[in-house]
Design goal:
The chain has 500 residues and is of the alpha+beta class. The protein is built from 14 helices and 14 strands. Among the domains are: 37-181 and 262-276 and 387-415, no CATH class; 425-479, no CATH class. A five-stranded antiparallel sheet has the order 4-5-6-7-8. Helix 4 (87-99) packs across helix 6 (133-147). 21% of the residues are buried.
Length: 500
């Protein structure tokens, strides 16, 4: 049977379905669902861009193939010059930074209520490793932007339940988030063919590290199967046993504790990577750079051509040696025309410009001057729409995960709020002066002035109403001081008329 490698690099591929096989693929928990295999073809270029130069050289057979009549050693030298710039990953990171440039807020679901202190502590460590909810959300949204979707699994320590909430907190028992990449989801099952049918099973690939001996460790692959109210973990047994249940248990939740988030959703757990066109251009850019670098490496050493020189043997070239040529002889160096390199460099520049103009890559090279505010806003329309979609999906996903965590411990989860002010309209000195002039002329209120300065990133996150109140108090105090007699002035006491 021909081996087909799994293109995403998570683990080796499986053999295609064959009715002559004795084993039943329907009972294999590691079996890849059809939609996952289809999505993996789109994940391959993303994997290369995420893996960087090392991944590009590792898959050189695919992306930097050998030219006709090119020997192995020459091809290896050409691969050595290949580098992959982090355009794709940098765009995803910049988009995540823009989306989460302001901290995630926890708000009580009850009007005028307060958030339980438990959730404030939980937000500072959502995964048990000291990761804040902002850092976790950033990692989640980068994965979603690169691969189309990601998910959060909400787990709870599998120990005996505490008698009450106080004892639970003393034991340190608390739910935690586990990040799940799109490539880890092997398959799922729905309750019927309806688009709104609920998911009844999800299979997740996991690779964990376990201690080996006194100092070593080994990587173990396992498949976690999640169902409403229960979970199972499969590991490979002996050769004859195949996959066997390693652990299993029940969950207090009546739903699957998995909260997906999408950047370009097609269906449940099916998506398309929104940055795939940029990833393909990124790889094309690396191919052209490899060709240019190899060409420059070869062209940097011109070839000596001698006309009329017929002696065999090595030729010594130095300032202290010479070559005797006949009267009709000639000698010169041969090198390629520089116009060939200019054409390659021009094409590389065009590729960079294309990546810069695609989707959210407008963040890659924003113009600060020489552009009107309206044209800036129009050039960011596609970018803002994509980021707005990702922001809404991320907020819903985190809210779902927080609600699951609250259901585990019996505490109502707060409401997750992600700021959607993506328009980076930083005010310059001239605009600040104009707003100040409008306020001085009474055209705008003090509150409007402070709100515009805050939105323009001039003022930090302040309570505007409180700031206005303190300002009025200072003004009132200043008026009282100005009304007091100055040093050297006489205080005239006016006596009231006795008849009054």
């Amino acid at each position: 049977m021909t081996h087909h490698p799994y293109p995403s690099g998570v683990f080796n591929g499986q053999e295609p379905l064959d009715p002559t096989l004795e084993r039943n693929p329907g009972n294999d928990p590691s079996w890849l669902a059809g939609p996952v295999l289809e999505m993996s073809q789109q994940w391959f270029p993303i994997d290369v861009c995420v893996g960087g130069t090392q991944a590009l050289r590792l898959h050189a057979d695919t992306y930097i193939p050998r030219e006709p009549e090119e020997d192995e050693e020459t091809w290896r030298r050409r691969i050595y010059h290949a580098t992959l710039s982090p355009f794709t990953t940098r765009i995803a990171e910049q988009a995540a930074g823009l989306l989460l440039r302001k901290p995630i807020q926890l708000v009580s679901k009850d009007e005028g209520g307060e958030v339980d202190p438990f959730w404030e502590d939980f937000a500072r460590n959502v995964d048990g490793y000291g990761t804040t909810i902002d850092d976790y959300a950033r990692r989640l949204v980068i994965s979603s932007l690169l691969y189309g979707h990601a998910a959060t699994m909400v787990d709870y320590p599998s120990t005996e339940p505490a008698p009450n909430l106080a004892a639970e907190r003393m034991l340190g028992l608390r739910p935690y988030f586990i990040h799940v990449d799109a490539k880890q989801i092997l398959g799922w099952r729905k309750d019927g063919d309806s688009p709104i049918a609920p998911i009844t099973m999800v299979r997740i690939n996991e690779v964990i590290s376990e201690p080996l001996g006194e100092f070593g460790d080994e990587l173990v692959r396992q498949v976690r199967v999640l169902e409403p109210g229960r979970w199972r973990v499969y590991r490979r047994g002996n050769d004859d046993e195949g996959w066997v249940i390693y652990q299993e248990g029940e969950s207090s939740l009546g739903i699957i504790p998995l909260a997906p988030t999408y950047s370009q959703k097609v269906s449940e757990f099916i998506s398309k990577p929104p940055l795939l066109p940029i990833a393909n251009l990124n790889i094309s850019h690396a191919q052209r750079v490899a060709d240019l670098c190899h060409s420059l490496h070869v062209a940097a050493l011109p070839i000596l051509m001698l006309k009329g020189f017929d002696e065999s043997g090595p030729i010594g070239l130095s300032a202290n040696s010479l070559i005797m040529l006949p009267p009709e002889g000639d000698g010169r160096y041969v090198e390629p025309a520089s116009s060939a390199f200019d054409a390659q460099q021009s094409f590389i520049t065009q590729l960079e410009s294309q990546m810069s103009n695609l989707g959210i890559s407008t963040l890659f090279s924003q113009k600060v001057a020489g552009e009107t505010a309206e044209s800036k806003r129009l050039s960011r329309t596609d970018s803002d729409s994509l980021i707005a979609i990702v922001s809404k999906n991320l907020q819903n996903s985190l809210q779902m995960a927080m609600d699951m965590a609250g259901a585990y411990i019996g505490i109502e989860a707060p409401e997750i709020m992600i700021d959607r002010d993506f328009d980076l309209q930083v005010l310059d000195s001239g605009q600040i002066q104009q707003y100040m002039q409008l306020w001085s002329n009474g055209a705008i209120t003090h509150q409007t002035l402070l709100e515009m300065l805050k939105k323009g990133e001039v003022l930090p996150e302040i309570d505007i109403e409180r700031e206005i109140e303190l300002t009025e108090q200072e003004r009132g105090g200043g008026m009282m001081v100005s009304m007091l007699p100055q040093q050297g002035e006489e205080v005239v006491e006016v006596e009231a008329d006795a008849d009054d």
